[in-house]
TrEMBL record:
<dbReference type="GO" id="GO:0070967">
    <property type="term" value="F:coenzyme F420 binding"/>
</dbReference>
<dbReference type="GO" id="GO:0016491">
    <property type="term" value="F:oxidoreductase activity"/>
</dbReference>
<dbReference type="InterPro" id="IPR004378">
    <property type="entry name" value="F420H2_quin_Rdtase"/>
</dbReference>
<dbReference type="Pfam" id="PF04075">
    <property type="entry name" value="F420H2_quin_red"/>
</dbReference>
<comment type="similarity">
    <text>Belongs to the F420H(2)-dependent quinone reductase family.</text>
</comment>
<dbReference type="InterPro" id="IPR012349">
    <property type="entry name" value="Split_barrel_FMN-bd"/>
</dbReference>
<protein>
    <submittedName>
        <fullName>Deazaflavin-dependent oxidoreductase, nitroreductase family protein</fullName>
    </submittedName>
</protein>
<dbReference type="GO" id="GO:0005886">
    <property type="term" value="C:plasma membrane"/>
</dbReference>
Length: 146
């Protein structure tokens, strides 16, 4: 598979739309490069537009809590959904075949963020590559389903 950092904005949107459709068609399962990888769909409110935005994200369940990571495949800028969550931390989340649920998102900081991100990298070593590819601190968020 091509390096996602090389995607144009249009091809990235198309790639995400295909994964969103596959996720919804197959009860939360997506094949190809995401085969067997736990994903979720998050619906955020655009910080600039106010429009709803759906994004596929990796989902990590660690110590009974759910986390998502704003890696952007190691790009130097956060994915757009990060600004959306920081602006409006109430989102909708789709996990597996479960119906969409409301969630409140909390950004982790300091030692808490570092501990969870270390576990993310242990479970999915590609995230260590993303971290090495950028100088920004990759944000980590906890989802609390309401």
């Amino acid at each position: 598979m091509a390096d996602p950092r090389d995607f144009s904005p249009e091809s990235e949107r198309e790639f995400n739309q295909q994964n969103i459709a596959e996720f919804r068609t197959n009860g939360g399962r997506v094949g190809g490069p995401f085969e067997g990888f736990p994903l979720a769909l998050i619906t955020t409110v655009g910080a600039k537009t106010g429009r709803q935005r759906v994004s596929p994200v990796g989902l990590f369940e660690i110590d009974g809590a759910k986390y998502i990571v704003g890696s952007a495949a190691g790009r130097d800028r956060n994915p757009g959904w990060v600004a959306n969550i920081r602006n409006t931390p109430s989102i909708m989340v789709e996990i597996g075949a479960d119906p969409p649920a409301e969630a409140i998102v909390r950004e982790l900081g300091g030692a808490e963020r570092d501990r969870i991100f270390a576990e993310v990298k242990r479970r999915a070593p590609g995230f260590a590559e993303y971290e090495a590819a950028t100088t920004r601190v990759i944000p980590v968020f906890e989802l609390s389903l309401t």
